[in-house]
Specification:
single chain, alpha/beta, 6-stranded parallel β-sheet, 4-stranded antiparallel β-sheet, 18 helices, 18 strands, 44% helix, binds 5'-O-[(L-methionyl)-sulphamoyl]adenosine, Probable methionine--tRNA ligase, mitochondrial, methionine-tRNA ligase activity
Length: 556
């Protein structure tokens, strides 16, 4: 059977689009990391947020045809875990093997449920990690960056960090009403600590750090975080305590050749990013082959200092390549308040995904989550996104334009380049611009705006469909060609949206693309361009048979 109208494949944008060109920039696996999570508390929506951002980036680069690696895991050493173990009357190792194991299972369950495709799950208690930490310590020592000194300061167990007197302030403990000292930055309680420990010459890295940031203006994003990091450097960096006496901190990796000292938990934890690439490598080439330097470290705003100052300083001092980018996201609040167990406002991610479905939650987190500013989570807001965007725009358009009443043959409608009306042009121009707009915003980590670009086009596509009234066109045999053209635009809008949305909503996109009969091999970013991948005159294509035509069913 021949198609009733002439199809012209649209080549103009395909060969020269920016997304396609960008594909050749990477010569190593694209490597993304999430923070490694403390195993002493149940995973919450904030943890899921880090993981969904990281996973969406991984899927994005895979759609561009790259190999991508994603690391996640658990941060199991330190005083925080030691004390949690003591509170449970357990040895830390038993605590970690039981509680952490349970947490790991919960974290993995969460990751599996949320379709987080991690390639490595790292536990800092693994032997390969101990080896990597001991090695980097020895190199820092050999390179003259470590010395023994007395350290006095305010220590926060919760943050596992020392603060200077200028970084703490008085506050009133909510529970006891007593005056306590807390960190200005995080609000966590601190205690005065005097001890002998090993120090890292962070002060010696100050100029190199400043130069690195000024020659890599997107090394830390968003801009407000970059400015914060620059101002910390400008205020002057004091040397950093990188061990604790064994008498205080037993639960950690021993300083090589000094059984009285345990390596500072943040040095230990940060090294996990290279452990996962097989560090110690035979040479840097091996590191590159395995993904290092990381392309993107995803971190929460509270741990920027560790990732944008301490981590690059350690790497510089060890002559190792620096990560390409640190992306710091803001936090999720609930009722505009920090989530906390005691306030009872912690959002349980499993329950949210059970209720709305996995992909709608992923979509909501990326659409409304803040990078620069905190986002306020509410189930009502997820529902609004579900009803308005997902069911209202995308699901509705897909159902309407593939309805058997309008396409009784089940054949994918084809495009007639010679019959484009003024009205069609409005939508067509938006469709042509969409892939680059989406890719630019996504690569700039403006996920909400990238998704908005898709839904702006879908809104225009819905308008185009409604204004052209295909339900009337089908009644008039003379309007057959016009009907096809009108349906083509809606189907094409859904196809392009389906391809682009794969990174954020993998399952729903799969359903959409199956419904449209888009071959599994024709779902890459290069095929997200207007007119790409549709049948020629010789290759007609059937819409897919959908067992569940409603992609976004009504939620009660
Ligand atoms: N173990 C360290 C990270 C070491 S990485 C070498 C850690 N762990 S954590 O479990 O406390 O936090 C993990 C991540 O969750 C951090 O990036 C943190 O910012 C993030 N979040 C914690 N609460 C959050 C919200 N309410 N909202 C969004 N993210 C949140 O820090």
């Amino acid at each position: 059977m021949r198609a009733p109208v002439v199809f012209a494949r649209v080549h103009s944008l395909v060969g020269c689009n920016k997304a396609f060109q960008r594909r050749w920039q990477h010569t190593k696996p694209f490597y993304i990391t999430t923070p490694i999570f403390y195993p002493n508390a149940a995973p919450h929506i904030g943890h899921l947020y880090s993981a969904v951002i990281a996973d969406s980036i991984k899927r994005y680069y895979q759609l561009k045809g790259e190999t991508a690696l994603l690391l996640t895991g658990t941060d199991e050493h330190g005083l925080k875990i030691q004390q949690a173990a003591a509170a449970n009357d357990m040895e830390p190792i038993v605590f970690c093997d039981q509680i952490s194991q349970r947490f790991k299972v919960r974290l993995m369950d969460l990751a599996d449920k949320a379709n987080i495709q991690y390639t490595t799950f790292m536990r800092t208690t693994e032997a390969r990690h101990h080896k990597a930490v001991a090695k980097i310590w020895s190199i820092l020592e050999e390179n003259g960056y470590i010395y023994k000194g007395k350290h006095e300061g305010w220590y926060s167990i919760s943050d596992e960090a020392f603060y200077t007197s200028g970084q703490v302030q008085e506050a009133v403990d909510e529970k006891t009403g007593k005056k306590v000292m807390v960190s200005v930055e995080t609000g966590q309680p601190v205690e005065w600590t005097v001890e002998e420990n090993y120090k890292f010459k962070l002060s010696a890295c100050q100029d190199d750090l400043r130069a690195w940031l000024s020659s890599n203006p997107t090394a830390v994003v968003p801009q407000n975080r970059m400015r914060e990091v620059q101002s910390w450097i400008d205020m002057g960096l004091a040397d950093l305590s990188i061990s604790r006496p064994r008498s205080r901190l037993t639960w950690g990796i021993q300083v090589p050749n000094d059984p009285d000292h345990t390596i500072y938990v943040w040095l230990d934890a940060l090294v996990n990013y290279i452990t996962a690439t097989g560090y110690p490598w035979a040479d840097n080439q091996e590191g590159i082959k395995n993904g290092w330097p990381a392309d993107v470290h995803i971190v929460g705003k509270d741990i920027v200092r560790f990732h944008a100052i301490y981590w690059p300083a350690f790497l510089m001092a060890a002559n190792l390549p620096l990560p390409k980018q640190i992306v710091a996201h803001a936090h999720w609040t609930m009722n505009k308040q920090k989530m906390s167990k005691s306030r009872g406002n912690v959002v349980e991610p499993m329950a949210a995904m059970d209720y709305f479905g996995v992909d709608p939650v992923r979509y909501y987190l990326l659409r409304d989550g803040g990078l620069a500013d905190d986002g306020d989570y509410s189930h009502e807001a997820v529902m609004v996104r579900y009803k308005k965007d997902l069911a209202g725009q995308l699901g509705n358009l897909l159902a309407r334009c593939t309805a058997p009443a309008l396409i009784p043959s089940g054949m994918v409608p084809v495009y007639n380049e010679n019959a484009v009306t003024k009205d069609d042009h409005v939508l067509q121009d938006q469709l042509k611009a969409l892939p680059d707009l989406f890719c630019d915003r996504f690569e700039d980590h403006e996920y909400g705006k990238a998704l908005q670009a898709i839904f702006d086009v879908l809104s225009e596509a819905n308008r185009h469909f409604t204004d052209n009234q295909p339900w009337n066109l089908i009644k008039d045999p003379e309007q057959k060609a016009r009907l096809n053209q009108v349906l083509f635009y809606s189907v094409e809008s859904c196809r392009m949206a389906g391809i682009l949305l794969q990174c954020v909503m993998p399952e729903k996109s799969d359903g959409i693309l199956n419904r449209l009969g888009v071959d599994i091999k024709e779902r890459t970013l290069a095929q997200a361009h207007f007119g790409t991948g549709w049948p020629t005159m010789e290759q007609h294509r059937q819409l897919g048979i959908s067992h569940s035509p409603v992609i976004f069913p009504r939620i009660k």
